[in-house]
Amino acid sequence: MHTQSPHEQSRRRALDEDTRTTKRWIIGEPLPSDKLEGQLLSKRLALPVFASDALSSVAYAPQELLMILLVGGLSFLTFAPWVAAAVVFLLIVVVVSFRQLVRAYPSGGGDYEVAHRNLGRRAGVVVASALLVDYVLTVAVSVASGVDNILSAVPELGPYRVEHAVGCVAALAAINLRGVRESSKAFAAPTYLFVASIGIMVAVGLIRTLAGDPPIAESAQYGVQAESLTQAGIVLLILRSFASGCSALTGVEAISNGIPAFKKPKVRNAQQTLVWMGAIAIALFVGLIAVALVSGVHYAEDACHLVGVATCESATQRSLIAQIASATFGNNSVLFYVVQATTAAVLLLAANTAFNGFPMLGAILARDSYAPKALNTRGDRLVYSNGMLVHSLSAIVLLVVFQARLTSLIQLYIIGVFVSFSLGQIGMVVHWLRALRKLRSRQSVRRVILGRLAINGLGAAMTASVLVVVTVTKFTHGAWIVFAIMPVLSLGMLAIHRYYGSVQRETRYGTVEAAAEEVASQPVGDHAIVLMGILQRPTVKALDYAIAADHASLEAVHVSIDAESTAALQTAWVDAGLSTPLRILPSPYRDVVTPLLRYLVTRRHEHPDEIVTVYLPQYIVGRWWENLLHNHRANRLRQKLLLVEGVSITLVPWLLESSSRLYRRAPRPLPGHERAGIPLRPGRKKS
Amino acid sequence: MHTQSPHEQSRRRALDEDTRTTKRWIIGEPLPSDKLEGQLLSKRLALPVFASDALSSVAYAPQELLMILLVGGLSFLTFAPWVAAAVVFLLIVVVVSFRQLVRAYPSGGGDYEVAHRNLGRRAGVVVASALLVDYVLTVAVSVASGVDNILSAVPELGPYRVEHAVGCVAALAAINLRGVRESSKAFAAPTYLFVASIGIMVAVGLIRTLAGDPPIAESAQYGVQAESLTQAGIVLLILRSFASGCSALTGVEAISNGIPAFKKPKVRNAQQTLVWMGAIAIALFVGLIAVALVSGVHYAEDACHLVGVATCESATQRSLIAQIASATFGNNSVLFYVVQATTAAVLLLAANTAFNGFPMLGAILARDSYAPKALNTRGDRLVYSNGMLVHSLSAIVLLVVFQARLTSLIQLYIIGVFVSFSLGQIGMVVHWLRALRKLRSRQSVRRVILGRLAINGLGAAMTASVLVVVTVTKFTHGAWIVFAIMPVLSLGMLAIHRYYGSVQRETRYGTVEAAAEEVASQPVGDHAIVLMGILQRPTVKALDYAIAADHASLEAVHVSIDAESTAALQTAWVDAGLSTPLRILPSPYRDVVTPLLRYLVTRRHEHPDEIVTVYLPQYIVGRWWENLLHNHRANRLRQKLLLVEGVSITLVPWLLESSSRLYRRAPRPLPGHERAGIPLRPGRKKS
């Protein structure tokens, strides 16, 4: 065997080549494993990756806070510092609470894991559905706000708000479905630029104010039509303003879901990043509120509530950031555009974060049997494509239904975040209480744990109260939708869990012996049937495979739909000298399925001990629309045959030439050739 | 073997029972073959079955004819008798022409066959697309007119016109998808009742007129706002009126498509039925026009064109038939309701006819490779369900787009009919010319053929001119839509034909010897792989089947996604004492597909002469939503594996308990049991 014939050599070479091409197709551009694992992130890179969501929320939180206060009239702006202070205090409490959660649950499960472990699976499912809703809303709100800021810089695009928003989501979906992975560095620049530009803007504004030349916003000249409010109405308005300001807290939980991505020491680095993120968010939030108040930004729910705007129906108000940037740096100055661009960029990055979060949570839920297993299947590009599709379609529906109006969407937002915050913090309280019970004796440890319990207790109390406030103030403004969807999602997840449980009980063995008992220790009779329409390449390939598999008995079966073609097949069968017996089944109804099923049932009745394998050729096509033109009868047949006891189906693929689009391959060998060692189909492609 | 053991006996009995249950499931309620073939129809039954379409068109043709004339003012009604006479003359010519077509092409192919054979496949495809469009429009127009007549009797339903129309189509679709077959008798009563009631109404109206007490329609009091027209405008209006009146001709072709359903002598009976149908249609058409003119029905395109109607925006005009019936028999009299009910019934029957015609033509086109083969696949109830779905969805789209307005829909109608009439008649002319060329010598026969040529020539000339008139007068009123759709359909059909042709060339053998050459004459090495996730019933069943099939070599392959479950499987494998080797493939990416593909390619490289069969368990479920929860990974895997050269897939079904919903079955035997002769799963269902 040392001296190979030239034929042998060329055959080996062709096979080598074939193997290599197939391998390249399978693997695609090689993705080394660290790409999937993700490079571990230094704090410098982790901050922008995980904080873009939290930081970007200062792009809309101050604006919404002030806007609600303005409903009561200009005098209500005096409440603004106090409301902002309340938001900042809440933010501090939540950050400190999360510092503890990060240490206690460093696996990256976040609130879902905490609630699931400490409060039971129902609470876990509620947290999961709250988070899913909020991931969708993060995309909708961030994109709406990003589009707002783009339109503030380029007002000509105004009429196409919804189209732009949907386009952004579609673009993000496309990018993420392709599986972009080197995102950490792409995140860093815009996030730091955003922080820097907003920081500089705030600093310049405040310095100019101290120097006696405060910036004046374009809307400072307008008065406001105040609603006349009762005492209770005033309190409610201030609470609403606070609730809208709380949108600054969204995204704080991101780090708790990403601990495994940090460099070691993971927990410590995550905690420090969390504190940094909190500090920056507070600085930007407070600074923007201060400059907005100084420069007199009057941003109303509806431009027509402003007194002094001439054509309020057609006029669009520019976003709060745009107004401040324009007042501080001058309208249409370079720095104005820088601020708008970085704001839009960081908002889109925040939306992008949710594009990773939703499918990841979906996969975890699928792994835990709370969601369809399909969500835990990675697509060709190693991303959870099914989850991404569900996610982006939901976001698009929201944007279309609410016409990409930030003020409407924000009413639905943060309910989910605060549900998950509250349950997470309550879970932490339970966690510490359990720890206390275990450690009765050691006083020093007890004291530490009691301290932590106090912090999470405060966090739980505050987030729960805020949840109540947010619910009360937003319910009639649209938040009821979230309260309608969350139970449906939760109950759906529990139902799916029950269903998978029942399937598992149906298919599992009690003992290993039970399994062993059922496996035949030696081969038993088996019969193969090749379904034969006309004598053509795909059917002959199926016949060839059936012969090669060497079944105990083999026959070709033809369902006779018209006498003419049956006779033609019989003649061809004899002419070709095929030794496999050909059985003709009459079909008075011109139907292939029923006669075949009848024959199989009869045969199973006569030979009850054997199994039957039916060979079906299957066309493989390369263009989506070809699926409309092929395989319908074969699919119907397959579904029907799989219902017959003791029958299995063998699909023998026939790759149509168009299937080469699926991967660039050398000309395919013919059925017989590929085993006979003739590498290429003669006279095709290779001339 | 004569004395069977009790065990053996019970096993046989169980198998008998199983076979019987399965058979009942396969066959359903038995449909004897004459049901599919259709009982052959006597003339008495054939007339209502085939004529409901043609006769029902007198329910709207007179109304639309008069309505268009009224645009010119009341004085234009004097043209009505002449326009009606032109329509009647055309109807006679068409009926006589079709008498000849029926004799020459008795196979039921109708215009499609005539055009295809005599004018080439392009003409055939054009006729086919024209007919498809018209089948859809028949449903839309008939349902719209039927709903009009229902609303004329029950005006309270007025606001829900579109909903009623869509509901009717959906109901017809549901009935036809269930495969109602005994329709011929169901057709007879309403059709004959319709003919009788309209006939009596016309007779009573005319007799009352002769007796000096003519019926007076409710709209006779209203004047009409006349448009001022130029000479050319007048001619165009009269032509438009004629074109609308020509809708009386629709459905005449139905008999030519149904000749095989007639009792013998088929051709003669079909011809006589055709003549009867023509005679009745003419009588009703002329009678209705006459009574409408006598009683002064003024039906305008828009109620606001009538002078004297108080609240024209909200008022709905009652249909012409309703107005005549009310004037003749008295409003809300029993006979009035009888007329309205039979009219609505016959219109729905006409729509029902199209529900048979469209899928049948679709199947013929699919058989001739002009449409997706799926249209030639009968569903569970032996009807062409795919075609029916396409048909009813198209009709629903039309009704919704045009808000079920008869006057708008009728603008699109009859273009298709006249395209097919014209091409059919031209085809007949070619047919006779060819016949003449063949029969040079025999003078007597020549003369007969020349006579027939003349008739079809006249038919061709007239239908072609009417097509031009119809096109010119309706084009801007909506008919352009038909002219946009027909070429798209025709080109689509030709493209599909080309595509199927190329696939056929790709898969066929030049000679029988070529086929014989490629079939291995004796078994060659084959290798089987059972994909093993965890040791549970479905995977064990697959393993069991693979062992039974006795492949040359067999191994179980496990893709290791996490170390824990892999170790568990290995332990269970050893504990169960399974002799099949278990191969573990590492999967760093937590992905099942890629490692398996790599392994297969490598193996194919090392053993190039063998084929590989991969066993995959497949869940069979009984409820549609369960498909969302199962088989996703298996399907993805199947698609990927089928692309690897030399690999075939064997699907081993696992029927979940819910699959018993698919057919009532006895408790299923377990994998090992069904071949070991243990009939029932112990301890389940059967306690």
TrEMBL record, chains A, B:
GO molecular function, one term: transmembrane transporter activity
InterPro entries: AA/rel_permease1, APC_K+_Transporter
Transmembrane segments: 82-102, 123-144, 164-180, 192-211, 231-252, 273-293, 334-361, 382-404, 410-433, 453-473, 479-500
Compartments (UniProt record): Membrane
Membrane topology: Multi-pass membrane protein
Keyword Nucleus: no
Protein name, per record: Amino acid transporter
The organism of origin for this protein: Lysinibacter cavernae
